[in-house]
Amino acid sequence: TGSVETQNLTCVLEFHFVGFSEDPALQSLLFGLFLSMYLVTVLGNLLIILLIISDTHLHTPMYFFLCNLSLADMGFTSTMVPKMIVDIHTHSTVISYVGCLTQMSLFLICGCMDDLILTVMAYDGFVAICHPLHYQVIMNPRRCCFLVSVSFVASLFDSLLHNLILLPVTCFKAVEISNFFCDPSKLLNLTCDNTINHDIVMYLIGIVFGFFPISGILFSYYKIVSSILRVPSPDGKYKAFSTCGSHLLVVCLFYGSSLGVYLSASFSTSSRKSAVASLMYTLVTPMLNPFIYSLRNRDIKRALQRTLNRIS
Fold it and tell me: Transmembrane ranges (predicted)?
């Protein structure tokens, strides 16, 4: 650790990650586990995308947004996990300076897309349940594409803003990142520059990409629940709840795991524990999303059955 920290404070060519374990036997187990989880994540989300594209019954706003969410999940996981798997296999924890900034940029783009698409899906559910007669007019194809485009542009802006902060930095206090990927918050903590300006920017980003989306989701579900409670028949209530149940579960997983990582980093001094906690929202949550939407969604099940019948 001493040799890592004293490499250079002015010109950094590479960073070092925190490994999960130095035990060779455990590393082999971790390699197999993470590789299996990554393949399940990619194949599961890819299946959702292919089903939505190939089945005309799923060409609706809800599944258009779900397709984009699965695409963002695949990108989100693929920016970090393959590098982590290779590092475990080669017993290396090194990443170049350029590679680190590239990974951070892709992480922010895909992570913000996840965040904003979940908010857009909550809005879609709000319109479907609270304004069903005007749903086709409000959620027309042009507006759907506009909402996804705005989410993507906002994600690019977030990534650009972080790069504008980090690119001029020439002084780092250390080169060991206390995570298994180039976490933007960890990188900012390593800089020698004025941290007050960084904190102000990070708080503003947190408000735009944290507070506003969560507020939008909470408001949407407040309106959704209020509308559902006014439905007289139990069957109608069940159908309405089942429509948004999968999305609500994914939202709880995404924000719950992110909050857990934040609390873990705040109260735990162990870098390794923080890295393990980060696995929840970088690998576990994207892996579970296809199962949640396929197991709890009749339309996806029917689409899968139709596809299997066509193949057979």
Answer: 29-51, 63-82, 94-123, 144-165, 200-222, 243-263, 275-295
Report angle CA 263, 269, 275 to the nearest 5 degrees. Answer: 70
What tokens were used for 205? 């980003």
Contact 129, 167 (CB under 8 A): no
pLDDT bin (cut points 50, 70, 90) of residue 74 is very high
Residue 38: per-residue pLDDT: 95
Quick one: DSSP state of residue 175?
S
Please report, rounded to a whole number, the percentage of residues in the chain having pLDDT higher than 70.
90
Parent domain of 138? 14-303
Distance CA 159, CA 188 (A): 13
Pick the closest to residue 86 from 75, 97, 74, 78 (CA basis). Answer: 78
DSSP 3-state of 297? coil
Q: Are strands 14-17 and 176-177 parallel, antiparallel or unpaired?
A: parallel
Number of structural domains the chain divides into: 1
84 falls within a domain: yes
**CA–CA separation, 285 and 45 (whole Å):** 12
Task: Outline where DSSP puts E strands in the chain.
Answer: 14-17, 94-96, 176-177
Name the one residue in this structure whose structure tokens are 């089945």: 55
* pLDDT of 61: 93
Residue 153 lies in a domain: yes
On whether residue 7 sits in a domain, the answer given is no
pTM: 0.88
| Amino acid of residue 121 | M
CA 59 to chain centre: 24
